[in-house]
Amino acid sequence: MAAPRYSSTTLAEDVRSDSTFRIPLIDFAAYKQATSLAEKRCIADDIVNGFKEVGFVYLTGNVIAPETVNSVFQKASIRILKASAEFFQLPEETKARLAWDDPKANRGYVQVGRERVTTSQDAAEIAALRAKAPDTKETMEIGRDNHPNFSNKWPQETEAPEFKETMLHFFQTCHEVHTMVMRSIALGLDLPEDFFDEKIDRQDHNLRLLSYPPIRTSLLLGDDQARAGAHTDYGTLTLLFQDSIGGLEVQNPHTKHYQPASPIPGTIVVNAGDLLARWSNDVFRSTLHRVVAPPAIKVNDTEGMTPARQSIAFFCNPNFDAIIESLPSCTSTSNPSKYPPLTTEQYIVGRLAATYS
Ligand code: CA
């Protein structure tokens, strides 16, 4: 849970007990509006401290558009979540035409669990399988639109008016947030503020729209109860835009117990991924997290209904040809680099090969 930024104890003290564990809430507007390096450094230190101790931060403030107030994240979240919800309401045939079909491209529509139930021809078997392994989420993957080899799978403008435009605008906005947060990280790690700029400017990111349909509670019981199992993310940072339903849980790295990361209106959740942890020679944490079903709404004495949930994850990556080598300020003679240099592409392809083998 987030707590007010100013408290009498430090983050490092708080997170060592589950009862006081918190994900720091950081006003990033103050970074953007700072007029001196010292002011910026203050926010940068909070961000770096958050990624060192927890691996997660909530960012609030006027990050996305300079002209408006604190509700910018809220407005952007509502707009993008609405466009996403409209997409998932398109007819099955339309979405099927946009199906994800290539891990290298990693673009298109995925209905999780679908393959498992459609390979069978037997109706009773299908019903049994569906009860055991229900379709608990749908996703739509969008990459950078100007990629030389891979094209995004867009619905036609008549099918989903303004969907492409909304998503491309949001993609650009998230890219800019990534650039700014990485600048603050550079400062907080005693590097020049523009240290990462030319290594992260190609937009090799991945925008994922997620829709978790409403589901009867009885279908969520058992081992597959979690809507997304515990995992870490691959890249530098993940920006997560949640609706008010929630369900994200973060492992307290100090006690290993999961804690809810409740939605806070007007904020985005930002976590460090494995590649950033590696880049920082493990100064930063890439923390395990999962999505669990939110509390059910009772429909009768024996059945509950878990509400639908929408979220948007923006997975940020350095340029695919950028060399990821332990940051100079994160190594010393007593703390040498733990990892050999490699490119982003070598790292990501290695991770994907492990997933799909
Ligand atoms: Ca994640």
Essential attributes:
eight-stranded mixed sheet, Jelly Rolls, 11 helices, alpha+beta, 357 residues, 20% strand
Descriptive overview:
With 357 residues, this protein is of the alpha+beta class. The chain has a single domain, classed as Jelly Rolls. The protein has eleven helices and 17 strands. The chain has an eight-stranded mixed β-sheet. The protein has a four-stranded antiparallel β-sheet with strand order 7-12-9-10, with no helix packed on it. A three-stranded antiparallel β-sheet has the order 6-14-13. β13 and β14 form a beta hairpin. α4 packs across α8. The protein is globular and about 65 Å long. The two termini are 37 Å apart. About 4% of the residues have low confidence. The site of calcium ion has 4 residues, from loops.
How are the elements arranged and paired?
Blueprint: H1 11-14, E1 25-27, H2 29-33, H3 37-53, E2 56-60, H4 72-88, H5 92-97, E3 108-112, H6 114-118, H7 123-132, E4 137-143, H8 163-188, E5 206-212, E6 215-216, H9 217-220, E7 228-231, E8 237-242, E9 248-251, E10 258-260, E11 267-272, H10 274-279, E12 289-291, E13 297-298, E14 304-306, E15 309-315, E16 323-324, E17 342-343, H11 344-356
Parallel strand pairs: 1-2
Antiparallel strand pairs: 2-11, 3-4, 4-5, 5-15, 6-14, 7-12, 8-11, 8-15, 9-10, 9-12, 13-14, 16-17
Helix pairs in contact: 3-8, 4-8
Bound molecules: calcium ion.
Calcium ion binds near residues 231 and 289.
Number of helices: 11
Number of strands: 17
Q: Would you tell me the structural class of the helices and strands? A: alpha+beta
If you compute it from the alpha carbons, what radius of gyration comes out, rounded to the nearest whole angstrom?
Answer: 21 Å
Mean pLDDT: 85
Supply the CATH architecture.
Answer: Sandwich
What is the element string, with H for helices and E for strands?
A: HEHHEHHEHHEHEEHEEEEEHEEEEEEH
Numbering strands along the chain, what is their spatial order in the largest sheet?
1-2-11-8-15-5-4-3
Which term fits the overall shape?
globular
